[in-house]
Amino acid sequence: MTRYAKVLAGLALSGILAGCSGQSTPPLYSWRSFQAQQYIYLQGKTDPQAQIAVLEKDMEKARGKGLSVPPGFHAHLGLLYATQGKTDLAQQEFTQEKTLFPEAATYMDFLLKNMGQSTSTSTSTSTSQTAKASS
């Protein structure tokens, strides 16, 4: 191969590689601080209300960029709402997780079922205690 052909082949290869390097795949999910927030929660080093605020802000930023939140995000947010006694918001988040990620449906159904039982159990316990007190 002549020197001219080698130089031309090298330039062509460089151009192809440069063209490929500019095409990156956009992220599928906006992870932001989700993983860190889960870790902090599991260590017991955070206030659930403060964590709810951070996750809601992350969700707004993701929507602003046209990205989705990752799997487990809505489930974790629902868990936080449930610990705060906001069962209606927790149910919405669990249902959203189930809709976006059908593979989580069994677990979300389990959480929804048990959340309903714990709510009805606490209500029936309060009612029976009130009835005993009034007797």
Describe this structure in words.
This protein is mostly helical. Helix content is 75%, strand content 0%. It has six helices and no strands. It is elongated. Residues 120-135 have low confidence and may be disordered.
Uncertain segments are 120-135
Main sheet overview: none
Give me the strand/helix succession: HHHHHH
Q: What does the radius of gyration come to?
A: 26 Å
Mean pLDDT: 82
Question: What general outline do the C-alpha atoms trace?
Answer: elongated
- What separation lies between the terminal Cα atoms? 105 Å
Helix proportion range = over 70%
Query: Structural class, please?
Result: mainly alpha
Query: What's the β-strand tally?
Result: 0
Number of helices: 6
Beta-strand percentage range: under 5%
Summarize this, please?
It is built from 6 helices and no strands. The protein is mostly helical and about 140 residues long.
Keywords:
single chain; 135 residues; mainly alpha; 75% helix; 0% strand
Summarize the topology.
Layout: H1 3-21, H2 34-43, H3 48-64, H4 73-83, H5 87-100, H6 105-134
Helix pairs in contact: 3-4, 4-5, 5-6
